[in-house]
Amino acid sequence: MKYSILASTLLLAGGVAVLSGCSQVQEPAGICNMSAIAAQRQLAAAPSRVQGGESPLLEMPLNSVSITDYSVINKLYVRTVNARRTPTGTVEVYAQIINCTDFPLNAEARTQFYDAGQAPSEPISAWKRFNLPARTSNTYQTQSIGTQSAAFYMVELRETK
Amino acid sequence: MRRARALPLLVLASAFSLSACQTVQNTAGTPTQYLDPGSSGVVRGVGIEGQDIRSMSDEMMRDLLTVPALANASISPNVIVDAEYFQNESSSRINKNIITDRLRVDLNRASRGRMQFVGRQYADMVQSERNLNQAGVVSGGTIARTAGQLAGDYRLGGRITSIDARDPRSGMIERTHQITFEMVNLQNGQIIWSNYYDLRKAAQDDIIYR
């Protein structure tokens, strides 16, 4: 009796293991852990207008990409954002954006460059549109107008509507 | 018979009473909407639209500023940016000047002396004043006389092309535009910079561009 119970238990466990092996569906990359992405997001206080005071505005820190659109904040992930000098001294910003969804998305971004004193150094760039097929990445890239005047940048990202 | 005569009278009376109910709709009209010129508007079609113009001219201007021959030359080059050699071969109706004017103005403001812009489209205007000056009809200009007008070192060329597709059952139209920009050396014809902007749109609505 004991043996038969043990055997049937083993058989059941084996069956379950085989079934789970068959039914396992691999999710295609990239897989975005939105909770971890949200936990990594750190907002910074904007420069205060009053000396010694605190700004009531919390925003993404400079040299980062700020998703300004509710509709894509849990759909897109900014993998990297970097900048480098071009041969003529202007600043080239490039950011890799990942579409975490199973659907194509149209997004657009623009960049404001700031001088060393964090004042806008030039007019904000126009919105630049780019397409993100399902579960793929694309690169947003733009350049500053000024050379030495561009010290920081802030990229705004939203869905194209 | 009596009923037949009464019916038109009834209709007439009710029409009169209804017309008496009509009053002036004393409300304000729909106000003009100011829209963000950098975003899609209310009326959207498959053609090149305002937000595309802004986006493409901004992108080209920023890219041109990374070309050392233009933005980092020891002597600022003379550049001509106009629509003379910028052709529209697409099926979209568009005034080419809206693209080249914006590019020239953006580039002129951004370059801050790194390039000099030649207003070739104003050559007649300049020549007319030079003629008056040389004939002694006018005098008192403060700028030193030059032998001639400024020659161009580089000039913008390019073209707008498109591919159209239409589904006759649904009426859906799809149009792909490719707008090519090139900067040509006017001494030897070398293309020192090229870039393009492309867009693909689909729509069902019958939008007329003017």
- SSE string of chain A, helices as H and strands as E: HHEEEHEEEEEE
Categorize the overall geometry of chain B.
elongated
Number of domains of chain A: 1
Structure class of chain A: alpha+beta
Q: Work out the strand percent of chain B.
A: 15-25%
What top-tier CATH class of chain B fits best?
A: Alpha Beta
> How would a textbook summarize the main sheet of chain A?
4 strands, mixed
Briefly, what CATH class of chain A?
A: Mainly Beta
Number of helices of chain A: 3
Number of E-state strands of chain A: 9
Describe this structure in words.
- The complex is a heterodimer of chains A (161) and B (210).
- Chain A has 161 residues and is α+β, with helices and mostly antiparallel strands.
- Chain A has one domain (34-47, 54-159): Immunoglobulin-like.
- Chain A contains 3 helices and 9 strands; from the N terminus they run ααβββαββββββ.
- Chain A has helices at 2-23, 34-40, 70-73; strands at residues 44-45, 58-59, 64-67, 76-85, 91-99, 105-114, 128-132, 137-143, 152-159.
- Chain A has a 4-stranded mixed beta sheet with strand order 3-9-6-7. A 3-stranded antiparallel beta sheet of chain A has the order 4-5-8, with no helix packed on it.
- The mean pLDDT of chain A is 87.
- Chain B has 210 residues and is α/β, with parallel strands linked by helices.
- Chain B has one domain (45-136, 149-203): 3-Layer(aba) Sandwich (Rossmann fold), CATH 3.40.50.
- Helices cover 31% and strands 22% of the residues of chain B.
- Chain B contains 5 helices and 6 strands, in the order αααββαβαβββ.
- Chain B has helices at 2-21, 50-64, 68-71, 97-111, 123-134, and strands at residues 78-80, 86-88, 116-117, 154-166, 173-185, 191-203.
- In chain B, strands 1, 2, 3, 4, 5 and 6 form a 6-stranded mixed beta sheet that branches.
- In chain B, helix 2 packs parallel to helix 4.
- Chain B is elongated and about 95 Å long.
- Chain B starts with a helix and ends in a 7-residue tail after the last strand.
